[in-house]
Design brief:
single chain; two-stranded antiparallel sheet; globular; UCP028777; Inner_membrane_protein; Inner membrane component domain-containing protein; transmembrane helix
Length: 134
């Protein structure tokens, strides 16, 4: 079996286990509800887009990564500052705490790492995009 096929199968298995047992389903629902609320409030639509991106990423994190979007301007930086003050710091802290708690057990280490991957994008989500790790 080719190493690429093996790696793809392991990522799929980890994503399924994450979705069911690691909190991926609950995180996706939480971020999805936040996105809908932000869309309803109209002025917070950029935050809704970021929350939707977080919902998709938190549902299926293995095999994907977050990169900075080169075209993001000053507006996304200012909105990120507002995000950090209102939401980002406690969401990032929650992912950090969950990651530490999950890393206590050997079985939970991959799920803890997935939570650590969510910390930077939960803290500073605008001006970033989620891409395949390959």
């Amino acid at each position: 079996m080719a190493p690429e096929v093996h790696a793809e199968r392991v990522r799929f298995l980890l994503n399924v286990l994450w979705f069911i047992f690691g909190g991926g389903f609950l995180l996706a629902i939480g971020y999805g509800i936040a996105a809908v609320i932000c869309f309803i409030l109209i002025i917070t639509i950029p935050f809704g887009i970021a929350a939707g991106r977080l919902a998709l990423y938190s549902m299926w994190p293995f095999g994907r990564t977050v990169v900075s979007r080169p075209g993001a301007g000053v507006g996304s930086g200012l909105a990120n500052i507002l995000w950090v003050v209102l939401f980002g710091w406690w969401i990032a802290l929650a992912h950090l705490t969950a990651g530490i708690a999950l890393c206590i057990t050997i079985i939970g280490i991959p799920f803890g790492i997935a939570n650590f991957k969510l910390v930077p994008v939960a803290f500073w989500p605008l001006g970033r995009e989620i891409v395949d790790a390959d």
